[in-house]
Amino acid sequence: MSSVHAYSRFVAAEDRVWESGGAGVQRQILGHDDLLMMVRVRFEKDAIGAVHTHPHRQVTFIETGSFAVQIGDDKKILHAGDSFFVPPDIPHGVVALSQASLVDVFSPARQDFLNASSLP
Amino acid sequence: MSSVHAYSRFVAAEDRVWESGGAGVQRQILGHDDLLMMVRVRFEKDAIGAVHTHPHRQVTFIETGSFAVQIGDDKKILHAGDSFFVPPDIPHGVVALSQASLVDVFSPARQDFLNASSLP
Fold first, then answer.
1. 2.60.120.10, 3.40.50.150, 1.10.110.30, 3.40.50.720: CATH of A2-116
2. Which residues between 60 and 99 in chain A have a beta carbon less than 8 angstroms from any beta carbon of chain B?
3. Domain ranges of chain B
4. CA distance A115 to chain B (A)
5. Residues B69-109: pLDDT tens digits?
6. What is the DSSP letter of B13?
7. Do residue B36 and residue A59 have CB atoms under 8 angstroms apart?
8. Closest partner residue to A33 among B35, B38, B57, by Cβ?
9. Which value does ipTM take for this structure?
10. From residue A74, how far is each of A71, A90, A93, B22, B35 by CA, in Å?
């Protein structure tokens, strides 16, 4: 299962399904191996990525739109072209202030996403 | 030096300089720590990211435009929204087929970029 797409070197967006990531949130698994994973996430306006934690470190690029981002006790509004970094086990979440999209990268890979994925 | 921006959790694009990455290529260091680093790179049409290798694993998101991408002996044209994954030590390079930009993520961080950076 993950062994197939763990070695996808070229990933055409049209070949990757959008999967539900919660209300108003969809995600698309992009290039990855077991230690590094890129995921594109699109949000409807006002959709929420609830505050959560995971042991993976994360870096995120705001592709389009604007988000209110919380990391630990800090909050900031970020726009397309901005980014943020989340150390392991630090609570973080986002609220989409407009229709918006971001690119999350995790290290190691989010096996929970792969296990839930409908990718071949 | 790197100790300062190694802990930048929120990174506003306007606070980050664009640095030369070669002819027609500029890069901007975004969120990172020592083990995970995001870098935005913009290319003039026909600008080249020459084939090279490094021990870091890399995943890249095509933000805008189109690139001819080479990974090992394989080549593919990728467009905005597509991505690619480069295992450690595998030769890879890109040619911008239009004015174009991408987001590279490296694990671990590219200390060579930090050492060359004019970031505070």
1. 2.60.120.10
2. 60-61, 63, 69, 71-72, 74, 76, 78-79, 81-87
3. 2-116
4. 20
5. 999 999 999 999 999 999 999 999 999 999 999 999 999 99
6. G
7. yes
8. B57
9. 0.92
10. 5, 11, 11, 36, 22
